[in-house]
C-alpha cells in the first residue's frame, strides 16, 4: 500500500500544483517516482519491481485506467495462478488501455501515454528473471512454496523408533 501511495501522491502533487496533465512535468514525475522505486539512492540503487508504484501512478493519472489494469492482473492471477505473469500482462496492457480508452473514457495525452509505455517497459525489464523462469516452467504459482516450484522434493519425514 505504501508503494502505491508513494506513486499516487507524487503524481497527484504534480497535477495539483499547476501542472497541465499533458504538459512536461506530470509525465516526468510519473517516470521519476517509478525510477526512484526501482533504483532508490538510500538502498544503494536496489529497489523493487515497481508493480505497486506503477499502480499508484496509474490511479493518479486515470482511476479507470488503473482499475482496468488491476482487472487484467486479477484475471491472469486467478486463472493461471502466477503473480509475475499477471504483472507482466497488466504492464503490457496498461499503455494499450490508455490509448484505446482515450477519447472514450478519458482524454489521452501523448506524453502521458509515452510515460506509461516507458514505465511498462521498465517493469517488464525488472521481471526478466521471472520471464526466464516462466519460459523454463519453474516460476512458482500463487500459494505454492518455492521448494516445489524449483522442482525440489521436500525431505521425507524420518520414522521414529517405536517404544516397546
Q: Could you give a quick summary of the protein structure above?
A:
It contains 8 helices and no strands.
What would your notes on this structure say?
There is one protein chain. Helix 1 packs antiparallel against helix 2 (25-38) and helix 2 (25-38) packs parallel to helix 6 (110-126). The chain has helices at residues 2-16, 25-38, 51-61, 63-80, 83-101, 110-126, 128-136, 146-149. 31% of the residues are buried. With 164 residues, it is mainly alpha-helical.
Please give the structural blueprint:
Layout lengths: L1 H15 L8 H14 L12 H11 L1 H18 L2 H19 L8 H17 L1 H9 L9 H4 L15
Helix pairs in contact: 1-2, 1-3, 2-6, 3-4, 3-6, 4-5, 5-6
SSE string, helix = H, strand = E? HHHHHHHH
The tally of beta strands, per DSSP, is: 0
Runs in which pLDDT lies below 50 for 5 or more consecutive residues are 152-156
Please indicate the count of domains. Answer: 1
Overall geometry comes to globular
Largest sheet: none
Q: What's the helical proportion of residues? A: 55-70%
So how many helices?
Answer: 8
- Using only CA atoms, what is the Rg? 20 Å
- Output the structural class: mainly alpha
Strand content: under 5%
